[in-house]
Structures are given as C-alpha cells and as structure tokens.
Amino acid sequence: MATTTMSMLETYPKSINLDRAKLAAAIDALISCSEACTACADACLSEDMVADLTKCIRTNLDCADVCGAAARVLSRHTGYDANLSRSLLEACITACRTCADECAQHADMHEHCRICASACRACGQACRELLAAMN
Amino acid sequence: MATTTMSMLETYPKSINLDRAKLAAAIDALISCSEACTACADACLSEDMVADLTKCIRTNLDCADVCGAAARVLSRHTGYDANLSRSLLEACITACRTCADECAQHADMHEHCRICASACRACGQACRELLAAMN
Amino acid sequence: MATTTMSMLETYPKSINLDRAKLAAAIDALISCSEACTACADACLSEDMVADLTKCIRTNLDCADVCGAAARVLSRHTGYDANLSRSLLEACITACRTCADECAQHADMHEHCRICASACRACGQACRELLAAMN
Amino acid sequence: MATTTMSMLETYPKSINLDRAKLAAAIDALISCSEACTACADACLSEDMVADLTKCIRTNLDCADVCGAAARVLSRHTGYDANLSRSLLEACITACRTCADECAQHADMHEHCRICASACRACGQACRELLAAMN
C-alpha cells in the first residue's frame, strides 16, 4: 500500500517543526501496527486455543486503539503543542512493547502473532526515533 | 444519560484491581469529554470567526481522540497491565488541560467553549483521581 | 452521567435541520451502546467459557466501532448532508440488532450480556426514531 | 508503507468467505483514505481561507471516522455476518463520494485537497468492488 502520508505532509500550508521523514515513518508505522493488532485480535479469537490467548487479544485491542489515536494526533500540525505528542508517543511505546512481548510468546504457534509482534516492534522503534528527534 | 459503565464493572466476571467508583467516574468523564470536544470542534467550525478558532478546533479533535481511546482501554480488565493505563491517563490529563485552557480563552464569547472547557476540567480531575488511586 | 450532548446542540451557532431531542437521544444512546459493547467484549473474554463467546465478542467489537463513529458524525452539523447520516444510521441499526440478538442468547448466563443487549436495543430504537424523523 | 493486511488475511486460522485480494485492497484503501482525510482536515484548518473550507473540513472528519471504523470491521472474520459489512460499505461509498466531490472543488488551489480527493475516489472504488464480489 502506498499511503499519502508524506505527500500530505509536503502539502501542509504552514511550517512543521518536526523532522518530516521521521514523522511520516511514525504515522505509517502507527497505522500499520493498529491494523495488524486489530487483525491479530480477531485471528486469536478464532484459534481453537482462544482460552490461552485472552491476554493477547486484550493487549492487541489496546494497542490498536492507542496507535490509531496517536496516528490521528500526529497527522495534525495546526496550533502544534509538543506536550501531547510526547505524552502520546510514550503511551504508544508502552503499548507496542507490551503487545510485542505478548505476541512474541505465541509467535512459534501462530504466524499472525509473529507478524503482529514485528509490526509492534517496528512501530515502537519509529515512535522512539520521532520522540528522540523532538527533544 | 444513564450509562451502563458501573453496571458493566459490577458484572465483570473476574476481579478488578482498581477502585471501581473512581474507575467508573473516569470512564464516564472521558466519554463525556470526548463527545463535548467533538461537538465543540464542529461548533467552532461554524462560527463566523472560525479563523480565530483553528487552534481550538485542533485541540478539541486531539482531546476527543485521546479521551475516546482511553475510555476503551480503561473499560478492559482482562490481563490488566497498569503501565499502559498510567501512561494513557497522563496523556489524557495533558490533552484535557491543553483543551480546557484553549477553550477557556473563548468561553466569554462562545457558550460551547465554556461547556467544553468544563467537561475537560472535570475529565482531567477524574483522571488524576484514578491515577492517584493506582499508585 | 450527565453528558453535555443537549447543551452542545443548544449552543451550536447555526441552525440544525433535525429534531434536537431525537438527535440528542440518538447520540447519547450510541455513546452508551458503544461503551457497553466495549465492556461486554472484555467481560466475555474473561469468562471461563470464552470459546463459546467468540462470535459475541466479535459482534460487540463491531457494534462499538460503528456506534462510536456514528456518534461523532451525528455530533457535526456544519455543511450537513443527510445522505451519510441516513446511511450510517442504517448501519448502526444493523449492528445493534445483530449484537442485541447475539448477546440475548447469553443473557441468562451472563449479566453483562443482558445489560449490553438492552443497551443495543435502546440504541437501535433511538436510531430508528431519528431516521424516521429525517424522512 | 508495506501494510501487513494481506499477510494477516493469509494467516487467519479459519476460512474467509470473501475474495481475499479485494478484501485486502478495500482495507488498505480505507486506511489510506482515513489518514488522508484526517490530514486534509488539518491542512484546510491552516489555510488562510479556512472560512471557505469549513464544509470540506467537516466532510473530511466524517470520512475519516467512517472509513476508519469500516477498516476495523472488515479486518474481523470471526462469526462473519455479511449484513453489517454490506451496510458499512454502502456508508463508506457515500462518505467517499461526498468527500471526493467536496475536495475536488478545491483541488486547483490546494494540493492536499487534490490528493485527498484521489484517495477518496480510490477508496470508493475498492469498496464498490468488494461489495460487488459479496453479492
């Protein structure tokens, strides 16, 4: 999929006080992670051993919600205030680490957990890089 | 509106390691704040002086997204992990303070900003009380 | 919980071409239903018999997403276009009927499913009444 | 951005009664459209002529919410019920057409509106193709 994230950043009419490449990478990673987590929660729900995957499902749902909200906030630049972006990136880093660790425990048995853990790790890394560039 | 938030907490089949009254108050305040912010963004958009309210609209949209995501996460108790709840409550407190301060600047001219500022302050307070009870 | 839904409708600066009482009732019912469904999905996830509740969880998650999105759309009045409101109300009526029927099958065993079914039926009814008033 | 949408569909443990290529295309188009609309709303908000773009902003916000919710619902396959998917695809088609038409009116002056109109048209098309394959 080719998202329009970078094109939209480039056509924003005022200045953006952030590294655009890192910002676009974080937004795209958040969107991709949110989608992977939504799908992984549902795939876990359809596994015969669903009773062993309830914590994984919950963690997936949380990570999808937090990363989805963060992608929206980071896509806005009007009246920018760094405090909320920082605080939300911290929450995403926590959600992604928790979800990656949980999914990784089932990665040998469930390919969807392996893919989702990888999307969470990539997202956490992109959030950390953006956060580092903001300070 | 009578939400079912407390009834749902009371019928959750396992234990909840949080003060249920404070948890229900926070969830309801987050939901109410998210709705007020969504409506305030749209009301600002319809004001003749919209050009002076663009930061307010952006702040409203952010606060609606963050509080909406937090209400969902706090409504889940399966495989509870305090770290994400804490981190997300911090983000909500930041979003609510920023939005309340911004809306308060327009409260004399726009009644919707006055109501929204009040919903944000109430939500920030409910989040701080839950966070204090978690530590 | 006292939402500010009606107060926000009353302070919207331009005219609203809809019955405000029915509109506020629908928005509040959608918000309450979305919250009940999010909590019911999690409560089902923590039941020992979760393997028998996977369809219920999925239906809950869908209903929460659709009703949450509809509450936001109906809270906006700027540049109003009836077509999307109608189409989205139809989707909510479908989601609420499906979720109410599914939860009702477990209402004898799980009190959270009984409460959630009731919230879904109330929401479906509020959506039908608003839709009827729009035509 | 490489989403994991198709990989997640391929690792879902049960059968999916839909054309997987069309389903993945629709999910990715919905996600991309939702992101473009969120960014376009904010870019419009920062234009000097924001007062002439209020309907565009509102339409963008609606389209972002509806397409975001639909992407989540279509990413779930457990206990599949075609009725909600159909109803939601219809709502997305309406939202995308309205938003594309509105953005197209500003495409000559605002490059972000041109890109967003294009994302909305592509999404509407992907939704129509999936809907046609479902009937």
Give a written overview of the molecule.
4 copies of one chain form a homotetramer. With 135 residues, chain A is mainly alpha-helical. Chain A is built from 5 helices and no strands. The first copy, chain A, has one domain (19-134): Substrate Binding Domain Of Dnak, Chain:A, Domain 2. Chain A is 74% helix and 0% strand. In chain A, helix 2 packs antiparallel against helix 5 (111-134) and helix 3 (54-74) packs antiparallel against helix 4. The mean pLDDT of chain A is 96. The B-C interface holds B 1-5, 7-9, 11-14, 27-28, 31-32, 35-36, 38-40, 42-43, 45-48, 64, 68, 71-72, 75-78, 110-112, 115-116, 119 and C 1-5, 7-9, 11-14, 27-28, 31-32, 35-36, 38-40, 42-43, 45-48, 64, 68, 71-72, 75-78, 110-112, 115-116, 119.
